[in-house]
Design a protein that fits this description.
By secondary structure, this protein is of the alpha+beta class. 16% of the residues lie in helices and 45% in strands. It contains 4 helices and 10 strands, in the order ααααββββββββββ. The longest helix is centred in the N-terminal third of the chain and has 14 residues, at 2-15.
Length: 198
Amino acid sequence: MRARTIAMAAGLVLLAWPGRATDTPGRNPMLDALQAPAANPHLAPKLQTYGRFVGSWTLDVTWHPPGGAPARTAEGEWHFAWVLEGRAIQDVWIFPARAKREKPEPWHFYGSTLRWYDPQIDAWHITYLEPTRPFVQRQLGRAVGPDIVQLGEDANGVQRRWRFTEITDRSFHWIGEVSWDKGASWTLELDMRAKRAS
């Protein structure tokens, strides 16, 4: 099961490799089939919950490692795109940003998220894959007032709450928290300030 999850994660990251299809048009049928130019018109109003993030973002990231180790801060990058006939959004999240890496480090992150809207429950199914760890997080995401809140629980009962707040056309604040007591208390894991790059 673990091997299958790692293989799937690696595949999704490859599929979302930014710029590949436009660099070699028509030469990679899989990427051409994956990418979509815009939101599916039948779902477009609902898809803007995450559709407004399509494009590239620079990040100021603070990561709080488990066990009380000192926080790490660095610039990150985040790329969002429409996929699967415009019914889903896939992203690639990289921390530290590729341009800031001098050599590979065990704490570096390089993951991908697939989000798709389910009209039957009026929510987004979300799967984040981090093959370098390996780590998989499944969540449901919904708009809550002006924010977006994603909640998920792993097989060990550990809950994670990821939130997009202070959202504008050019910026947002992302907060990642973890709970080991079923949501009675939350601990900050990751804090990101994003600015639109394209």
